[in-house]
């Protein structure tokens, strides 16, 4: 059989929407297919790694492949994921895919009981000879525990019906080796989202990726810019999707993609157990995904209150049970810089500030928990200081932003004034500070959070020690 299929463009490695009980959600699957095609997808790849083929029985995979062909409606080719542990089973499923109208088969290297190089060669040669479909080799050593070496791929490229290789190793040197050795013989497809720019710039001709479910149009735009010689624009676009790509590739593929698609209004369902577990995709990661989708314009931004101009540290202290009337003579100052504002009081350890300091640490208010201002673990600033969020923390993502970059920025501000001599050493041991800080909790750039906090707190501290 002669080679007749050449993969091009961006082909999403489709997720498989499952209900809580593990049943296929056909309507959700149709939504995803229609969305990807409408956004430029040049093919569909069901029952691959992102499609959770490992968790499906053979009959379920057949049903999924047939449904994909029907829903594609000849708009784009369907490349069936047919790889199995045994050669015989792979051949049988590949023949089925040919019978129902698939254009090619994506065949993952045998896994678990992995063969030597000769076994890889003979496995693929047999599938190509007897499977009745063009075969795309699939190298994903982090899952198969065995690498498809370039010399084996080079030999397989000589066979009729071996038409391409998808490399998801995440190793750019290996991808470059494949591109070099296969030049003029068959195309190399990139399967690792984080490596897209480098691989395409080096000569990869297409991509089969999990994030193709979410943003095939962006990947196609990067590819277009590379081919037009606009590398700077391509690099800018790659960097804009890098965080989301990293979350997808490093957290199981299907769970983050399905979370993103649900946020985009599609019924992407759940992953199957054990991939669908709380440890796979934390609430903090879900928030990161939401923010990345907002940044890319794929969902609308959630509305949130602007940063407070009138942060009230005394009001927060009142909740700790301290009589605020005793704070009449303590030093207090306010500072603000762009996305951060703060209100700080300074007082003696043996006065009302000291009493409030202890109560805030011993009786934390839910959502407004006070935390020591530290430069690094076990290294608190002097004078001792605690900080608390002016607005209630409502998610793990917000907590990680506040008790992290904001905390670091406040500590740097104190250290800066100490180093410059603006804070006298006489205040180091007998004075305390309580800070209330408000920040745009939907900030995407943590460095910005740290920098703005440092500037805002510095302004406030400079007033305290004028």
Task: Describe the protein's architecture and organization.
- With 466 residues, the chain is α/β, with parallel strands linked by helices.
- The protein has 2 domains: 287 residues, Aldolase class I (TIM Barrel); 152 residues, Ribosomal Protein S5, domain 2 (2-Layer Sandwich), CATH 3.30.230.
- It is 43% helix and 15% strand.
- The protein contains 16 helices and 14 strands.
- The protein has a 7-stranded parallel sheet with strand order 1-7-6-5-4-3-2. Strands 8-9-14-13-10 form a 5-stranded mixed sheet, with helices on both faces.
- Helix 8 links the parallel strand 6 and strand 7.
- Helix 3 packs parallel to helix 4, helix 4 runs parallel beside helix 6 and helix 15 crosses helix 16.
- 46% of the residues are buried.
- The model has no long low-confidence stretch (mean pLDDT 91).
Relevant terms:
single chain; 466 residues; alpha/beta; TIM Barrel; Ribosomal Protein S5, domain 2; 2 domains; 7-stranded parallel β-sheet; 5-stranded mixed β-sheet; 16 helices; 14 strands; elongated
Explain the layout of strands and helices:
Blueprint: E1 9-12, H1 26-38, H2 58-72, E2 79-81, H3 87-99, E3 104-108, H4 117-130, E4 135-139, H5 141-144, H6 150-156, E5 162-167, H7 172-182, E6 188-190, H8 196-202, E7 206-209, H9 216-227, H10 231-250, H11 254-263, H12 283-295, H13 313-318, E8 331-337, E9 340-348, H14 352-362, E10 371-372, E11 374-376, E12 379-380, E13 384-389, H15 396-419, E14 431-439, H16 446-464
Parallel strand pairs: 1-7, 2-3, 3-4, 4-5, 5-6, 6-7, 13-14
Antiparallel strand pairs: 8-9, 9-14, 10-13, 11-12
């Amino acid at each position: 059989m002669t080679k007749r299929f050449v993969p091009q463009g961006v082909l999403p490695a489709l997720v498989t929407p499952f209900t809580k009980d593990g049943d296929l959600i056909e309507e959700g699957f149709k939504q995803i297919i229609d969305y990807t095609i409408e956004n430029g997808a040049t093919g569909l790849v069901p029952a691959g790694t992102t499609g959770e083929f490992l968790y499906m029985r053979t009959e379920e995979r057949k049903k999924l492949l047939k449904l994909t062909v029907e829903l594609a409606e000849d708009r784009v080719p369907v490349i069936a994921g047919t790889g199995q542990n045994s050669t015989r089973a792979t051949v049988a499923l590949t023949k089925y895919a040919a019978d129902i109208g698939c254009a090619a088969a994506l065949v993952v290297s045998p896994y678990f009981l992995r063969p030597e190089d000769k076994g890889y060669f003979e496995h693929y040669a047999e599938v190509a000879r007897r499977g009745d479909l063009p075969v795309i080799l699939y190298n994903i050593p982090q899952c198969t525990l065995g690498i498809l070496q370039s010399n084996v791929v080079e030999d397989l490229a000589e066979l009729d019906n071996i038409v391409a290789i998808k490399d998801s190793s995440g190793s750019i040197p290996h991808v470059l080796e494949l591109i070099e050795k296969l030049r003029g013989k068959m195309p190399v497809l990139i399967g690792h989202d984080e490596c897209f720019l480098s691989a395409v710039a080096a000569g990869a001709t297409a991509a089969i990726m999990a994030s193709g479910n979410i943003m095939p149009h962006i990947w196609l735009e990067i590819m277009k810019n590379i081919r037009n010689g606009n590398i700077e624009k391509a690099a800018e676009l790659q960097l804009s999707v890098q965080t989301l790509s990293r979350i997808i590739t490093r957290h199981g593929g299907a769970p983050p993609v399905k979370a993103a698609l649900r946020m985009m209004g599609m019924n992407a369902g759940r992953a199957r157990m054990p991939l669908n577990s709380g440890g796979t995709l934390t609430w903090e990661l879900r928030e990161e995904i939401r923010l990345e989708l907002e940044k890319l314009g794929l969902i609308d931004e959630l509305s949130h209150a602007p940063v407070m101009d009138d942060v009230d540290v005394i009001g927060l202290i009142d909740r700790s049970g301290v009589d605020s009337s005793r704070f009449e003579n303590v030093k207090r100052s306010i500072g603000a810089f762009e996305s951060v504002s703060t209100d700080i009081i300074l007082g003696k350890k043996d006065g009302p500030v000291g009493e409030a300091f202890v109560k805030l640490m011993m009786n934390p208010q839910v959502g407004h928990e006070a935390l020591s201002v530290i430069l690094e673990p076990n290294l608190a600033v002097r004078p001792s200081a605690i900080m608390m969020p002016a607005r209630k923390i409502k998610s793990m993502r917000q907590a990680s932003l506040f008790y992290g970059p904001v905390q670091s920025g406040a500590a740097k501000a104190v250290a800066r004034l100490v180093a410059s001599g603006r804070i006298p050493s006489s205040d180091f041991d007998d004075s305390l500070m309580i800070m209330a800080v408000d920040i745009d909790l939907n900030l995407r750039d943590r460095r910005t959070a740290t920098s703005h906090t440092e500037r805002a707190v510095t302004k406030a501290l400079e007033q305290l020690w004028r």
